[in-house]
Each structure stands twice: as C-alpha cells, then as structure tokens.
Amino acid sequence: MAEQAVTGYKKWLEGVGEQGVFFTSFFRNIFRGGFEWSEFVRQCYEIGYRSMMLVGITSFIMGLVLILQLRPSMLELGAESMLPKTLAVSFIREIGPVIIAIICAGKVASGIGAELGSMKVTEQIDAMEVSGANPLQYLVVTRILATSLMIPLLTIIGDAIGLFGGFLALNFTDDISFSLYFHKCIASLEFIDLFPALVKTVFFGFAIGFVGCYKGYNSNKGTESVGIAANSAVVTASLWIFVIDALAVQITSLLFYR
Fold first, then answer.
1. Where in the sequence is the signal peptide annotated (predicted)?
2. Rounded to the nearest 10 degrees, how much is the dihedral formed by the CA atoms of 25, 26, 31, 37?
3. CA dist list (Å): 228 to 113, 118, 175, 213
C-alpha cells in the first residue's frame, strides 16, 4: 500500500515537471520568429466561430431559466423590479463566464486533445520535427493563443444573449420595454463586475488550450490513447476552470472589497 502511494506520488511529480517544461516551451516559442499567423487565424475560426452557436443557445436558455426561477422568490420579497439587476450581476460576474468556459472545455479541449493525440499516434508530429518544422510553434502556440483570445469574446457574446433571454422570459409575465430592461441591466453593472469577469475568462481560455495541447501532444502511441487524451483534457480543464474561478473570487474580494 505504501509502495503504491509512493509510486503514485512520483508519477504526479513527474507529471507536474513535464507540464512545467511544456509551459516554458510554449512561452519560449511565442517569441521565436516565423509565427504561424494563418494557422492562428484558422484556429480562431475553429474555436470561436464554430462554438458560437452552442454558446449562444446555452446562454439564451440560462438567461431565460434564471429569470423564471428567480421571479417567484423576488415576488415574495416585493423586489420584482430588481430582476434585471439581479440577472445582470449574477450572469456577468459568475454564471456566464463559468458556464461558457465549461462548455468550451467540453468542446474545444476535447477536440484539441483528440486532434493532437491522433497526430501523435500517426507520427505526424515526429514527421514535422524530422522535416525541420517546429510543431510546438505551429500546433501548440497557435491553439493556446486562439483559446485565450476567443473564450473572452465568446463570453461577451454569451452574456449579451443571456441577458436577451432574460428579457424574453420577463416579458412572458410582465410588460417591460426593451430599452428599460437593458438600461436597468447596464446601470446595475460596475467596473468590479466587468473587469475581473473578463480577465478570468482569459485564464479560462489559456487553461483550456494548454490542457488540450498538453494531453494531446504527450499522449501515448496507440489508438486508445486518443480517446484517453480527449477525455482527460475535458476533466482536467474543467477542474482548472473551477480552481481559477475560486482564486479569481478571492483576489477580487481582496482588491475591491476591503
């Protein structure tokens, strides 16, 4: 039993070390010449545009459901007029960024892990190294930078769609104009609601891209390793999203609510 614990601990330390080396290699390759702009733009399209429909539908349903769930409680308190403010603050601060990041972890991180894992299995990455190309710069740097850029943009779009879903849900039972609803939403938001939420989505995107690339790039050579890499990428990226979110909340509280 003790030997198994020691072996597991050694494997964990080896994994941490490998991730540290991969992390430093990523940053070292950002500043090398010959950045692959065409591949970066293609990844932005694949990660951002192709995820927009899923993000939009999910955000719309979340905004609609939140209003329908909050309305009975707010009616009991006589605070029905606070529904737009409550939705805007909760959705933009926490619900929108985390839900959208989890969705992208399931779609993007698994896709990157499976793609790079299959390239590893079919020895395409080895062929790139033999031919003198830089697979880290072409495959890893472009994908991590693309996720770091597109996840915040998807979050902004998802927040707007979620607030619109809340507006439609509120109009099922109450008569409120579009301009009044969004005026209440915008007026309720402050800098401490917008800026920390946007900054942490950059870290969400980085975690999604980094985990997907690491799991795929370092997968074992075997057909089953592709599925393992994709599944492990989703689980690990989701865990990192919750860890980053918890840290972001603590840092925001220390900086802005002291």
1. none
2. 140
3. 9, 11, 51, 13
If you average pLDDT over every residue of the chain, what do you get? 86
Q: Is the dihedral of CA 55, 61, 63, 65 positive or negative?
A: negative
pLDDT at 257: 63
The predicted-structure confidence for 174-224, as pLDDT tens digits, reads as follows 778 888 888 888 888 888 888 888 999 999 999 999 999 999 888 876 777
DSSP 45: I
CA dist., res. 60 & res. 245, Å (int): 22
CA-closest candidate to residue 98, choices 45, 40, 35, 55: 55
Instruction: Give the global pTM.
Output: 0.90
Q: What is the CA radius of gyration of the chain?
A: 21
Flag whether 7 is in a domain.
no
Assess if residue 134 is contained within a domain. Answer: yes
Give residue 42's Cα distance to chain centre.
Answer: 18
Q: Which domain holds residue 247?
A: 35-256
If DSSP codes are grouped into helix, strand and coil, which group holds residue 35? coil
